Amino acid sequence: LLTVTMFLSTLTPKFYFALTVTSSFISGLIFVFEWWHFRKYGTSFIEQVSVSHLRPLIRGAENSPPAQAAFSVGENEPSRQNMPECKVWRNPLNLFRGAEYSRYMWVTGKEPLTYYDMNLSAQDHQTFFTCDTDVLRPSDTVMQKAWRERNPQARIKAAYQALELNNDCATAYVLLAEEEATTIVDAEKYFKQALKAGEMIYRKSQNCHSQSPQHEAQLRRDTNVLVYVKRRLAMCARKLGRIREAVKMMRDLMKEFPLLSMLNIHENLLEALLELQAYADVQAVLAKYDDISLPKSAAICYTAALLKARAVSERFSPETASKRGLSTAEINAVEAIHRAVEFNPHVPKYLLEMKSLVLPPEHILKRGDSEAVAYAFFHLQHWKRIEGALNLLHCTWEGTFRMIPYPLEKGHLFYPYPSCTETADRELLPTFHEVSVYPQKELPFFIHFTAGLCSFSAMLALLTHQFPELMVIFVKA
């Protein structure tokens, strides 16, 4: 610093001004490049170069870890690029279009579903409810076109045309239950008619499924229709207050079709059991489905945290805990909350009512804001019912990502938090909803440093231009 000061004291005002302008320009370029590199790659260029190249020269290459080590996610886990980060899933608890989504639009004038979300549902319907043998049955041919129609009224009209051709067309009743029925009671009536027709067609397909590959495809389609109808009937019973009946229907469905676990019927069962306050049964379901080999979900992680919190939340006090320390049960509850928040960090703001809810979409993104909306929409009441549970969540959830300095690069219990969730959530959630983006990564030190250096150099250049003689006297002094 003394050497620099002595050098500056020998300069003329014009040369000193030129030097400060040049240094300001260079530091500005460095700042712009640092910012661009951080926005594109998520890391500081200066920090990356210093860690990757300068540190091995100073300390020896053999003592420094490879540059990629900061991005590892565990010895036995696949890399981030190989993980299905942004796969969109069907929402297990999606609402009824006619009886719920449409009613919201009538009252508010806002579209609760995006075109992208409804287009995904149309693709699902074509996959689940159609097959190559539909050309043999005129009613199924009409329904094949109905699922591709964009206009709801055109779909409903096609469903009635299919029923005119065949009064036992189960998929036509399904469409009417979903989109024409304006109440859950009406939807249940349609689904009961669909169940009667679907069981009859399913039995016929079972008898001849081994005759050809086409018959096997028809059996798969008829199975999908039957499972869908039974599940929606159980959801109707749940919404109409017949919860024990709904639980029985869900359990029977899971026993009858155990290979269809990817449909996540157990999440419907968990929600219904929580409404019954059958916490022992909830724990039994979690013991079966909360397994590392199965796709995790917010419903599983946060329900497990709720059960752990239930054991200690009523007597939990932050002041008391800070004085005497946490008990074993409290540590288990806090760790369960940390695990849940690490999986989906958007949920706590909805449970704590720090952010307003909207109707859940028909599809969700695991670990995304859409999944958080869908979970909180149905489970907020269960957290409120347990005294102190939300208080415990409020006291502990923000500490999760302090334990994981770089959640986008390294996870603690799960693979790193996906950085692509924001784009998919904006497609799934309505435009009037403010999409939650988390975690917001802090700017690296060197971006702050170059910004300060640029500002300081610019200030020196300005002062030198305005007061050249005074600045030279100041430097010499």
From TrEMBL:
Specify the protein's topology with respect to the membrane: Multi-pass membrane protein
Claim: Membrane is one of the keywords in the record: yes
Q: Sorted alphabetically, which InterPro entries does this protein's record hold? A: ST7, TPR-like_helical_dom_sf
Where are its TM segments located? 15-36, 445-467
Signal sequence span per UniProt?
none
Q: Which UniProt keywords apply?
A: Membrane, Transmembrane, Transmembrane helix
Q: Which compartment or compartments is the protein found in?
A: Membrane
Q: Which GO terms describe its cellular component?
A: membrane
**Source organism, top-level taxon:** Eukaryota
Q: Which PANTHER family match?
A: SUPPRESSION OF TUMORIGENICITY 7, SUPPRESSOR OF TUMORIGENICITY 7 PROTEIN-LIKE
Protein family per UniProt: Belongs to the ST7 family.
The protein depicted here goes by the name: Suppressor of tumorigenicity 7 protein-like
Organism of origin = Lanius ludovicianus
Upper classification of the source organism reads: Eukaryota, Metazoa, Chordata, Craniata, Vertebrata
Gene behind the chain: St7l
